[in-house]
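Fold it.
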Amino acid sequence: MRLSELVLVVAEDAELMQSLTTALAVHDIEVVSVMHGEEAIELARARLPCLVLIELYLPGAMGGFEVARQLRANHRTSGMKLVVMSAWGEDPSVVAEGMIAGCDEVVGKPPGIERIVELAREALRACEERAH
């Protein structure tokens, strides 16, 4: 399955969502944003982004780790780079839970914009390489 050169931001925090969306767009990175885990799953299956940035705590029944688990378990979405953002991103138990859920990385919240842009560029490069 070919992933698209797209980043999906999944965040409850409107300010975080806006800052990430703006920062990525300024760097000419296509980005879409949703607030709920269920929406993220549907959009990821439809649009196949290279990178999914997921806030740990989301409104509704599905949190960030569950989004990661479901994306990893589906053959269409299993190759996406998954990064969860958490205020406890440096806590070893949170990082371990993220790895068990299938995350590629757990970062602190708020994440540094430079790091997010770097992650996006890495994911986009990897998608491009897989396409050739």
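DSSP finds five helices and five strands in the chain.
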